Amino acid sequence: MSSNRSIGQATRCAVYLGIASAGLALAAPAHAEPLWPGGPDVPGVPAIVPQAEITAPCTIPEARACVRLSTNEAWLIDNRKVTFGPTPISHGMAGYRTPPGATRVFIKKEFHWSTMHHAPMHYAIFYNGDIAFHVGPIERESHGCIRMTWDGARAFYDYLNVGDLVEVVP
């Protein structure tokens, strides 16, 4: 009987010790760099492949938004450093090409209705006449606007202000 009692006490002690050590582990989680860019974190193990700095192809130092038409990508930048992106986009089809160049944001509307194309334009940021960044299907070309995913358009809308420079490269 006494040997059963000592086994029971030893078992309870082991259970309590396990619970206490689990509580300590949860109280102070260890952080580590991912094993590869976007990979899982392993505590105490440094990254095997350091994440490369993301760069945008635009060259104008004061540009706050950068669009590359050839790869259907856009970035938000601050002092030539990428703050968001690349994010996927689509742009103008034949006959409605999105012009390259640099111009400034002149109006922002959280929701705009296109009277030209009878379509909604959520998170519209007009930067070149009737050309704007806005939510739209990125699988199809547009009538000149930069179509973006919801996340991309929202990030651009929140970041850009009237007067900010947008650079579009081929």
Describe this structure as you would to a colleague.
This protein is of the alpha+beta class and 170 residues long. The protein is 21% helix and 34% strand. It has a 9-stranded mixed sheet with strand order 4-9-1-2-3-8-7-6-5, with helices on one face. The chain starts with a helix and ends with a strand.
Please describe the structure with a list of short key phrases separated by commas or semicolons:
170 residues; 9-stranded mixed sheet; 2 helices; elongated
Topology:
Elements (H helix, E strand, L loop, with lengths): L1 H26 L35 E6 L4 E6 L2 E10 L10 E4 L2 E8 L4 E10 L2 E5 L10 E3 L1 H10 L5 E5 L1
Give the amount of beta strand, in percent.
25-35%
Note poorly predicted spans: none
User: Helical segment tally?
Assistant: 2
Question: Structural class of the helix and strand makeup?
Answer: alpha+beta
Secondary-structure element string: HEEEEEEEEHE
Mean pLDDT: 84
Overall 3D shape: elongated
- Order the strands across the largest sheet as they lie in space: 4-9-1-2-3-8-7-6-5
Number of beta-strand segments: 9
> Span between N and C termini?
86 Å
Helical content (DSSP H or I, runs of 4+): 10-25%
Summarize the main sheet.
9 strands, mixed
Q: Report the radius of gyration as a whole number of Å.
A: 26 Å
Quick structural overview:
Helix content is 21%, strand content 34%. It has two helices and nine strands.
